[in-house]
Amino acid sequence: DQRIKRQIKQLVIYCKHRTEGCLWQGNVEQAKVHLECSDGCQYEKIMCPKKCGEMVVRQNLREHLLANCFIQWEECKFCKSLLPEGSLNNHIESLCPEYTLSCSNECGSTIKRSEVLDHVTVCPNHVVPCPFKDAGCTVTLQRKKKNSHLEECQLEHLSLAYTNLQHQMTDIHEEMKSSREETQVLKRELENTTQEVALVNSELRRLQDNQMKLTSMLESELRYFINQPHNSVAKTLSIECMRIQLSLFSNPYNVVLCPGFPLVFRMIMFSHFKSSDKIWYSSPFFVQNGYQMCLAVHPNGAQEGKGTHISVYIHLMAGPNDDSRNWPLMFNDTVTVSLVNQNPHSSKTRGMLPSRSPKLNKHSFDSEATNICHSYDEYQFTQQQVLRNIIVSLRRVNKPVGSIGLAFGYIAMFCAHSSIGPAVLLNDSLVFQLKIESVVLM
Predict the structure, then answer these.
(1) DSSP string, 109-144
(2) Fewest beta carbons within 10 Å, which of 39, 48, 65, 109?
C-alpha cells in the first residue's frame, strides 16, 4: 500500500549508533546518507581508504592512517591532505590549492593556487582590451595603463562611438521598417481571416436558421401525418413531403430542383397565415446551376389579388456559392408551381377552375389554367389534380444583398379563395409542387 509506505518513510528514527554517542535523528531515507557520506556518522565503521583491509571507526580514520596503517601516507603541510607515500612533491607543485605562487604577470603579488583566476581580474599588469572595443578601438594594454589611454584618445573614442551609434540607429530603423511591413502583412492577414470568420459565421447562422425551419416543418408534417387516415392520398403526400424535408435536413446542398423531377412542400396553418396576412416561405432549394431559391406564398393575396386570391412567386436567396456564380442571373428554364389535390377521388373537386387565365403583374412570363392528373412512381404519388400551372420565364436577376434577394415570377391572382375546395385545403393545409422544365431558346 503506497499510503503506508509514505507514512513509514516520514517516521523519525535515531541513528543505530545512538548508544555509542551519535545524536542524529531523521527519516528513513536520510539515515542511509547519514551513514555513508564522508562527513556523516562518526561512529560508523568504514574500510580503510589505503585498502589495508582493516575496518575503522570514521572518527579514528586519521589516526589510523598516520600511525596504525601499514601502508604509509604523507600529510601536505599546506592543505593538510593525506597522500600516498612518494606523491607529495607532485601534489605541491601541480595540485595543492593552498600552495602560494608568484603572479605570472610579474606584478609582485604572491597568491594561492586556488585564487589565481580571481587575481587575474584585478592584476594591474594583466593585458586587457580598450573599453571602447565594441565601438571599434583595437588597442590592448595593461590594466594599469587603461586610464591614461582613455584620456589620450577621447576624441577618437567619441568619433568611434558616434559612428557606431549611427550604425545602430540605421539597424534599428531597418528593423522598425521590417517590423512595420510584417505588421501590415499580419494586419491584412488578420482582416482576411476576420472576413473569412465572418463569412463562416454568417453561413453557419444561415444553415442553423434553415435547419431550425426544417426541423419545425418536419415536426409539423409528422403531426399532420399521424392524424391522416391509413392508406389515404393525404398520408402518401405527407410521406413525400417528409422525404424531401429529410433530404434538405441531412444535406441541404444536395437537394437540387432538376428538370422533370418535382419538389413537394406543405403549408400548414393556412387560415392563420391568411388571417394574419403573413407570407409563407418553403424550405430553400438549389437549381442545377447552383443558385438558391425558395417558394413564397401570400395566402391572403397581394396587389390586385389582395383579399381574394392566393399569390405566389419564386424568391432568389443568398447561397453559399454566390461569389462563384455568374451575375446577373440568366435562368432561362421554366418553373411550374402547382396546387395539389389531396383527395383526387372527391367529386367536389371537379369543375373548380375558372375558364380565364390568371392575371399577371408587370413581369414578363406566360401562364395557363389546366386540370390534369399526374402519377410519379419515383415519388410514390397516387393522383394529383393541378389547380394552377404557372410557367415562369426568368429574365435578369441581380445577386442578393441580404439573405433574401429579388422575387420574380410573381402571380398576384394565382388561385381564387372561392375556388379552393376541401380536397385541396385539407386539414387547414395546402400542398404545393415545384417543377422545372428546360426551355430551348430561339
Answers:
(1) -EEEGGGHHHHHTT-TTSEEE-TTGGGT---EEEGG
(2) 39
